[in-house]
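Fig. S4 source data, part A: sequence.
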Amino acid sequence: MQINGIENLKFHSQLSLKQVEDRVIITAEFPKELRVELGMREPFLYVTLYVRGGERIKIIDEDNATLHIPSKKDFEQKTYNKIIKFAKEHAKQFRSERIQ
């Protein structure tokens, strides 16, 4: 499965653990094919950004609390980078970082 086509990212909420990590909830439009493949009706992105490096993206279905934890290789690289960049723009501890 290649995860791509996630569009219209919208910041929903953020939790910051000082000097450890930021957790950002992002709503987005998921392609119908991806929602069907994952068995999800109302998915959202739960992104964890670690201050000392690294990140994790989880996809959670609000409708039935289904959790999907894809690896980085499951994403199209452009889609993965877009999600991480968006999360960093909204995460408290990463706002001052220069995002490339």
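Fig. S4 source data, part B ends here. The longest strand covers residues 7-17.
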